[in-house]
Please model this.
Amino acid sequence: MSYYVEMPRYGANMEEGTVGEWLVQDGSPVQKGDPICTIEIEKLTNELLAEEEGVLKHILQEGDTAACGDVIASVSTEGEELPALTGSHEPEVAVTPSPAMPAEDKKPAAGSEADVMNLTPKALKLWEEIGKPDLTGISGTGYGGKVTRDDLRSCCTNSVPSESEIISSRIQETNLPRPSVSAEYRPTGTEMVFIKSIPMAQFRIEDIAAAVLSGLEKVPSMRVFQNTDVRDMSKDSILWTVVDSADGERAFPMTYSEVGLEDYSLRWKEKMDRASAGLESSVSLTPPGAMVFYDASQYGLDIFKPGLSGFNGPSVTVGSPGNRINIQDGSFSSVREVSICLTVDSSLVSRSAALQFLNYLESSFQ
Amino acid sequence: MTVRAVTGSGIRCAYHHSQCIEPWLMNVPGLVIVAPATPYEAKGLLTASIRNNNPVVFLEHKLLYNMKGDVPEEHYEIELFKSHIEKEGTDITIVATMAMVALAKKAVKKLESLGISAEIINPRTLFPLDKETIKVSVAKTGRLVILQEGPKVMGAGAEMGAMIAEELFEYLKAPVKRVTSLDVPVAFAPVLEDYINPSEEHLIKACQSAMNF
Model:
């Protein structure tokens, strides 16, 4: 069977070899397995054997160097024509452009907004999230002068949410109502919420108020409560606000006096059912008998405006010790403990200070 | 002291003489691991290694003993702890070591025909690694493909990939890709040995996948 004799590849690194000596004369017959010629690579010399029987025809001369895979001779048998040689026999790596990357769209990077403005990919995402503010004059501090997320934050402090705000907004999307003195848990990025239940032998509202006020003074970093005011939630405050997504943007705040205690558990149950069925987008409840200690100098009474859910300022909410709502079935039960919900800004009050404050309350109640 | 040691597969020497030992050594704090890729680097880096006061392991890839290249006759040194940018590019950074540098350079033309402009970095010193050159390049291109001979698990590429994920996450447009040998003992049969080791095709596919991410 006719074939072209190619320069063999003896090792993965071998690029080329040299025909040393023809061991069979041009035009002479060879048998399968006969040595045809010697191949020299560096200091090695190998014999090249015939793979088939036929007549050998030299193509290269002794001393010629050829790349691996290039034809150096032919062995032909009668009646079998070899195809004409067409240049190099170097095998090509088959590469087909994938359909996902059409020729004119090969470089998604070049010319894209991120490259024009030299934003890192993450900074670009953030820039789009915050409404693409104007970036003229901003200088990137990243590698290659790239504008990083930190650069964006420092230049557009008003519009760029902090990482914790982004995280908390994402938590909020999946937030479930949870049992606490203030049924609403609405983190706003740096907000820290501590919920603690302290057993109490005898409940006197004056004792609690005194303990909280002295605790706020005792723990130094709780000074964010500069002008502490107390609000008794059982009187005329907003008991809940409902934003009913099924009925559009209808909000109906109700006060405690309008509802009455018996109604409360039924309403609670109904609202939880609706919330779990996805009918209500927001559930906000404050239990009867709760007291809220807040910083009046910063937030004033605005925090109790109808429709405003949750407190954004520092606050200590002390729940009713006589009644507790079972979040599962909405029933009340009588317990001898006080629930405290402390809400502070983590950038102003450290976690250890908050715990110190709660521990102080615990020790003064016992 | 400088210890010269051979490493790498590809010369049909089966399991016992085909190990890639650089990750073993990289895990010994205090050792400097030098890995030349060309004859020019071999001479310059060896001189620098001998003159360096640290214990240096000078890795010589078996396949590279046959490599031809221009080498100055006079004495010269190549700075240790400094990566070399073999070729500049804009779309993707390829970090390749030792014998893989030539493979990466060979793939450049194919990549260009696909519209991918690759930047090729040869670390030259594997440990301590010149992170800065790699980081500047990846920050520019946003994509990294590490081309490394030897098993994927815990290889030198694993360390580089982790470093980039740790320190340069913000700049990445695509996940870091590693093109390595298979996690198997090196085979004796030439066909199998070639199958186990990374190829130009593997590299091009990894680059395409990073570009299309």
About this structure: Chain B touches chain A through 38 residues (CB under 8 Å). Chain B is about 35% helix and 20% strand.
